[in-house]
Amino acid sequence: MSVHTRSDLETLRADGLSTLHPPGLRIGVGMATCGLATGAGDVYDALRDEAAARGLDLMLVATGCIGYCQQEPLVDVRVPGQGRVLYARMTPERARALVAALARGELPAEGALALIPENQTSKVSETSEVLPGVPLLSELPFYARQHKIILRNSGLIDPARVEEYVARGGCQALAHALLDLSPQAVIDEVVSAGLRGRGGGGFPTGCKWQVCRDAPGAPKYVICNGDEGDPGAYMDRTVLESDPHSVVEGMIIGGYAVGAHEGTIYVRDEYPLAVERVSRAVAQAEELGLLGEDILGSGFGFTIDVVRGAGAFVCGEETALIASIEGGLGEPRPKPPYPAVSGLWGQPTVINNVKTWASVSAILARGADWYAGIGVEGNRGTVVFSLVGKVANTGLVEVPLGLTLREMIDGVGGGGLDGKAVKAVQTGGPSGGCLPARLFHLPIDYETLTQAGSIMGSGGMVVMDEETCMVDVARYFLTFTMDESCGKCTPCREGTRAMYEILTRIVEGEGTLEDLENLEEIATWVKAASLCGLGQTAPNPVLSTLRYFRDEYEAHVVEKRCPAGVCRALIRLEIQPELCTGCGLCRRECPAGAIHGESKEPHVIDPDLCTRCRLCHDICPVGAVEVVR
Ligand SMILES: Cc1cc2nc3c(=O)[nH]c(=O)nc-3n(C[C@H](O)[C@H](O)[C@H](O)COP(=O)(O)O)c2cc1C
Prior knowledge:
- With about 625 residues, the chain is of the alpha/beta class.
- Helix 13 (about 270-290) links the parallel strand 7 (about 260-270) and strand 8 (about 305-310).
- Helix content is about 40%, strand content about 15%.
- The chain is globular.
- The mean pLDDT is about 95.
- The strands form six sheets. The protein has a five-stranded mixed β-sheet with strand order 2-1-3-4-5. The protein has a five-stranded mixed β-sheet with strand order 13-12-16-14-15. Strands 8-7-6-9 form a four-stranded parallel β-sheet, with helices on both faces.
- Flavin mononucleotide binds near residues 225, 314, 356 and 534.
- The site of flavin mononucleotide (FMN) has 23 residues, from strand 9 and helix 22.
């Protein structure tokens, strides 16, 4: 079908509703990269084959990320009139048992993580009636504080069917913007909402659009930045995999607002599923006439190209990204001029992050006042984090800005992994800093995180505990930025290397107190003198760890000790004879052949052969291997 009018949209919506709320069973399997990596593909096949074998009529859907990545594979069973049940850590075997139970008209309790009522009258709102003891999703600590705007459809819709996106309110914003509002009124709405760019810097989106709209020159362009190269971050990938339509819709609205008729989605080629799903979303929008000439009869035309990036971190920087789209070397250039004035092919260009675009469509659909009512003064709306590291609950989390770090880590994250105390959190990826637990009362907002020595970044949040060495962490991020520095400017190219060499000396037990002073001086200099954000922020992990964890640096250089027991040159592994049962596991597994002992007799580690890989410590069933720090 083609969609030329608002009533065509209604028809499309009805199509989507018929699959989103079918008369029979609907089972969604979280099949974003996180789900697929844990075996969601096999679970999907098992559900399909078992349903076919039993002649059970059900609608099986590959959805995007359901959020609680640690509990993957996740399966979402919707029973009409009863609501939905979320099953965790599904296996093909349990998937077959699930279908067998459903065929008998039952819902199995095994693996049921949470219940989701469809409405007030659905049976799962009275949990005891359906599955006694299984909590409501909104009661799970992981979900309780979340507010999903950017991820509003993630894990719910089939990302391959724009109809389902429309059924959940998609494209209403587009119709409103194109048919009811002037381009300036759209910009005013985004300004009033208080939306700030979710790519890291937090620049006010409406202001950027205004600059582009007012800039002389045509054609103008809009770009979606889906490069996302931070280690440990996967928010943008997930949005593109799970709800690409929200990004497409946001970009058309943005194009209309600034006077652009061409858009580019730049996504790294290392994200093949995101490339596939966003390309399909663009193709569907083209087929329906939601992209192309005269969209919804408004007279406005817009097209989108998908460009695959080769996967260099610096290509996420806007001027480097533009150079990369133009076919040039992915290197940043000095600013100003900013892309809003002179961007792609030297023309005025708005470049926004994936999550920023996904927010735009929500804002235009529900209004600036609604959005501005979420978050805190100056930091409106929600932010998506990939919460990872030494934390009990990991996954993709969307919370209102202004939530404290403690609410995030202890509340959503459930505290340290295995009950261990959390020592620090790193936000902002390699450009961010490490904040100690004593600062967890701080709210998550752009200014507070920057003042504390970190940055909001694009949404990576890595939690660390007492077994994390902060010097080693700083060195890890420096390794990344040093490798990813494009080398164009000397401070970044040489400065990151110099810092890396000092950090290497320190973790190898060769550091001096003078090294600490030099490290601080070089870091300050690299920050001030680098050409682009990569070099300007690369010292953050070093400076923040020096600021908050100087005692750990001093233990390395003065006492030649790694308090966390991580740095190989500064630790020793010893088997405690009174605990060792002589099971021989460590002897068999040791890659260096450094462990000796008779069966059922205490074993011994030869320090000359031991490489201090800690494998014996990690696998010993009775905890007999001690890390001597
Ligand atoms: C080294 C470096 C890497 C960056 N990587 C990304 C990225 O992967 N995604 C992104 O949206 N912004 C990234 N940025 C920020 C962009 O330059 C730009 O500010 C952003 O795309 C603007 O979108 P926003 O206003 O919606 O945040 C990066 C910046 C630097 C300095």
